[in-house]
Amino acid sequence: MKPKTMTIGELKSELSGYPDSAPIYFGDGKLSFNRIKNRGPVGGYLLNLEFNEIYEVHQDFSGPETD
What we know:
two-stranded antiparallel sheet; alpha+beta; 2 strands; single chain
């Protein structure tokens, strides 16, 4: 399954109408931001936002994948 991603430009566009002081929460508000790490190939980019907490992702594999 291909990872769900968005580009930096798309993220900037989504955030463009908000002031720099607007708070952002992650998940249900229980995750705190740690860092952004490049996990792409040499000379490429695939940025991963990392959090300080360990969390589980649950996915339902019973139905067809939809995009």
